[in-house]
Amino acid sequence: LKEKMKEQSWNILFAERGHGVSMFRTKKTRDLVVRGIPEALRGELWLLFSGAINDMASNPGYYTELVEKSLGTCTLATDEIERDLRRSLPEHPAFQSDTGISALRRVLTAYAFRNPQIGYCQAMNILTSVLLLYAKEEEAFWLLVAVCERMLPDYFNRRIIGALVDQAVFEELIRVHLPQLTDHMTDMTFFSSVSLSWFLTLFISVLPIECAVNVVDCFFYDGIKAILQLGLAVLEYNMEKLVTCKDDAEAVTVLNRFFDSVTNKDSPLPPAVQQGSNLSDTKSDHPKVDITDLIRESNERYGDIRYEDVESMRCRNRLYVIQTLETMTKQNVLRVVSQEVKFSPSDLEELYELFKKEHFLSCYWSVNSPVLHHHDASLPYLDQYRIDCQQFRVLCHLLSPWSHCANRDSLALWTFRLMDESSSCLINFKQFACVLDMMYNGSFTEKLKLLFKLHIPPAFTEVESLNPSKGDDLSKEELIHFSQLSVSSVGDNLESDSLKSSPEKGKGKVDIQTYLKQWQDELLKKEENVKDLPRMNQSQFIQFSKTLYNLFHGDPEEELLYRTIAAVTSLLLKMEEVGRRLQSPMSPVKSPVAVTETGTEVPGEKQEESSSEQTESSRVQSLKGNHEWSFAFEQILASLLNEPAFVRFFEKPHDIKAKIESAKNLQLKARTRV
After folding, report:
1. Quick one: where's region Disordered (predicted)?
2. Is residue 614 included in any domain, yes or no?
3. Were both Cys, which of 14, 362, 466, 569 would link to 19 (CB 3.0–4.6 Å)?
């Protein structure tokens, strides 16, 4: 009878003020909405008040087409949807059968396909379930579009910025309208934590379903203003109990008991469906509150809140919310990255700002930047700011301790290729900070391993790691033995020349045995990792040697380092020859040492460039004619550990602070040059 009386009231209004899109909104319309829209008219009026009816009329067949395209797709959103389908109003008979579950699946999947930036958020399943109770499937889809894209913007994504902004507006309204409550509860974050579900689900998750639909009625008519008003009314109703609470847990209990006591005496739903009636016996000690009275009171007390004021507060608080999110998530990112690197917190923060600035510079300079195309606010914060190869090259020029190298562009490209494990052509801050930390704070072994890996293409790495040449691997004892041989044979003459040319005259000599023992200990800890490294072939080794030559340019011990590389190259080739003989004692192997000796002459002894190029090309051609030769990382490491000048060069400390200060001033100019 009450439902028929409500319908009759609405029919009179339609006759007086128009029906459908031509209907005028008057005070009488608001009064009827507050009383609750009749079940038979609810879906129709939701479409009308939200504007979804216009979207549906403008796009005939759009939903059917979306369902066909999205059916059978498998994404992260569809996986989350499947997980939450049976959690959506499980107590309601409509969603205890495959019919209701299938309709819910189609609507949510179609919207995730329509708007991949939002995809799916957990609160969407609860809201869509209620929409499907009173609207057809296509109508529920367009209602969901209206809520997510117009009425609650930025609510349904991973950062829920829109909900956080409205919570900040809610806190501001509490200060204005409920000063007694704010005087007692100095920590306003309590209201944000407890009211988040109110905003995301329009009170559906906290109120009985027969009461929550009345709130949804007001929301589609008044927008977010209705939710703010109701929230203030709930807090005012429980004011006396809240001010006596000793902690947040007690306050949450007070509010939960209040929501359980809310009923809808005019609801036509059967008692089996009504949630409030099922709790009437257990919560009899708490006075009942009718949802209609609560909504009417919220309109009477807080109806003077204007849309213009709400929008003004939204704009004012949006920047604050975003800045707070940026600060919090930035701290989380720095905390995660700081566990992986040895930079000081201040240096790491400065690096982060330079990294983020480079990201935004790309977006500013080029609208078609791939970084801008790949920017996704729904991603975890660590992956939201990423740079491409060109941007990484700029930062490498500014920050790398090896930026003086003649082939620094090639080094930057190889380093980027090594870090881009997902082949997305983008890297995040953690990857950038880790490789920079390796260059500045890594041990001698770590820096050498980095250079070694830079000169091995990914394709070669994948093949060689699956099929290592076991016969060419030397044991650690043999490596140490050959290293000691190098000191007595090849190293004797070199050491005497080195001491003569060194400005320190033997000062600061390195204890080779100590380094060998340290290397053995590190190798035992990371033996599997080192063994996984592929062997370096001849062309890669030649490029590796050239890179070392370029790194040494301008160093005070430049000529000594050149001699060191020449001696180590000769030693490694001898080791390779011995390794082959150990593997096949009866098979004669032509020594490559004789071929390479001319190619490893010290650059300090001036030769004609044309003759050196001919020598190197003839060396490579003759080596190709012989058996293919290659070196393991352990062989190169063991040989270089015997060279004090080489170890000193890579263990020389570099000042990252000076680089950062210089980069701040030159970042924009460097980008312009590139």
Report:
1. 266-286, 584-621
2. no
3. 14
